Amino acid sequence: MVRRFENVVTRPPRIQLLGLLPAILKPCGPACAQPFTNRNVEALRDEEWDETPAFVLENADRAHRIAEHLFRDFGDRVRIEVVGLDSPRGVWLGLRHRVGKGFAVIVDGRDVFRDPRDYDPVKGAVSRALSARPSPA
Fold first, then answer.
1. Cα(90)–Cα(47) distance, rounded to whole angstroms?
2. Which residues on adjacent β-strands are paired with residue 107?
3. Which long-range contacts (CB under 8 A, 24 or more apart) does 68-74 make?
4. Reported pTM
5. Which one of 61, 92, 106, 114 is CB 3.0 to 4.6 Å from 16, fit for a cystine?
6. Which pLDDT score is estimated for 61?
7. CATH (residue range 13-23+54-131)
8. Statement: residue 29 has pLDDT above 60
9. What pLDDT was estimated at residue 25?
10. How far apart are CA 97 and CA 88, in angstroms?
C-alpha cells in the first residue's frame, strides 16, 4: 500500500535562491522581450547588464556561484529554484523569511541564509536535508 504523501519525503530538497535579480536569470528574460523590441537577445542582455544596479549584479553573481557549488556537490539530488523578489512568490518568501532587498538561500523551506558570504553553512544544511530523507530503494 502506498501512502498518499510518501513522495513528498523522497523528492529532492528544494533550494531557493531569492533576491532582486536581473531579468537574464529569470525563466523568460531577454528572450521574451526580443520579439517586441526587434533587437537580438545579446544586445538586450548587454543593455541590461549596463543598466542594472550594482547590488542586483552582486546578487546574480552570488546566485550563480552558489548554484554552481550545489550542482558540483549534489548534482541532481537537489532542486534549485531562482526566485525574484519582484515576483508574487518572491514577495511572499521575502516577507515570510524577512529577506528585504538582499539575497537569501532557503533550504527546504526551513533553513534560511540571508546574504550568505560563505557556502559551507548552505552546504551543511543541504547535507542535513538529504540525510533526513530515506535512501532510494
1. 24
2. 15, 111
3. 69/119, 69/122, 69/123, 70/15, 70/122, 70/126, 73/123, 73/126, 74/126, 74/130
4. 0.76
5. 106
6. 86
7. 3.40.30.10
8. no
9. 55
10. 14
Residue 23 contacts residue 56 (beta carbons within 8 Å): no
Q: In what order do the strands lie in the sheet with 79-84?
A: 79-84, 14-19, 103-107, 111-114
pLDDT at position 24 = 56
d(CA 133, CA 6): 11
For 30, 81, 90, the CA distances from 45, given in Å and listed in that order, are 6, 21, 22
Per the model's pLDDT, the better-predicted residue between 58 and 51 turns out to be 58
Across the range 77-106, mean pLDDT stands at 89
Backbone φ and ψ for 118, nearest 5 degrees, come out as -120, 140
Query: Would you report the helix, strand and coil content of the chain in percent, each value rounded to 5?
Result: 55, 15, 30
Cell of 121: 553553512
The 10 Å Cβ neighbour count of residue 121 is 14
pLDDT number for residue 105: 96
Of all helices (H) and strands (E), which one includes residue 88? helix 88-97
pLDDT at 57 over 90: no
